[in-house]
């Protein structure tokens, strides 16, 4: 696989809820090894786009290709098996299961003998989870649950990791930790598509960025260039 291979490509994607068109012909791509940020205001269609990519939300029109194969209409479980894995907005941990049980759920489609060693790797990345391995997920803080949701996704050994608003509702210290973790995961070779309202933080760690507004991609480019763009700064960075 070449370093420039397109891992995920979305072409003219349209998604509707009833009569309301939430996503209006969005196109973008994520290449192998990239960290790409999709930014925009609340309600721009970012989460709906991720749900469509991962088979949670039906697609009205357009195409989605993953590893050069059309995947529109495939279920989330099929896509996870192929290495396309999402950490959903709101974390979605199994609150009545322990941390270890949550991590095992992330590996439930695997049949290899390295699951336990991967749990140890997650515990190395997230020492807080190791300390609380037998604690129920629902008793942890929001930040700890976000770590668990990311750890659970890593247990599926993603080729492309989709992160939906990972910093939402977290304390500033925990936001720092989550973004450090995203950088670490990316640095270890995982391709990442990051959806974030925190535009400055998202663009500061990304290679490239796409700006969504009212269901459409309105700007795209090098992440640092977007971060310095006066229009982006005025619209999303409060400047």
Report on this model:
With 239 residues, the chain is α/β, with parallel strands linked by helices. It has one domain (32-58, 75-236): P-loop containing nucleotide triphosphate hydrolases (Rossmann fold, 3-Layer(aba) Sandwich), CATH 3.40.50. 36% of the residues lie in helices and 27% in strands. It contains ten helices and ten strands. The strands form two sheets. Strands 6-7-8-3-9-10 form a six-stranded mixed β-sheet, with helices on both faces. A four-stranded antiparallel β-sheet has the order 2-1-4-5, covered by helices on one side. Helix 3 (99-106) runs parallel beside helix 6.
Keywords:
four-stranded antiparallel sheet; 10 strands; 239 residues
How would you summarize this macromolecular structure in one to three sentences?
With 239 residues, the chain is α/β, with parallel strands linked by helices. It is built from 10 helices and 10 strands.
Give the total of domains. Answer: 1
Question: Structural class of the helices, strands and pairings?
Answer: alpha/beta
CATH topology: Rossmann fold
CATH architectural category: 3-Layer(aba) Sandwich
Bulk shape: globular
The strands making up the biggest β-sheet line up spatially as 6-7-8-3-9-10
Average pLDDT reading: 92
Q: Helical region count?
A: 10
Query: If you compute it from the alpha carbons, what radius of gyration comes out, rounded to the nearest whole angstrom?
Result: 17 Å
Give the low-confidence spans: none
In the CATH scheme, the class would be Alpha Beta
- Amino- and carboxy-terminal Cα gap: 41 Å
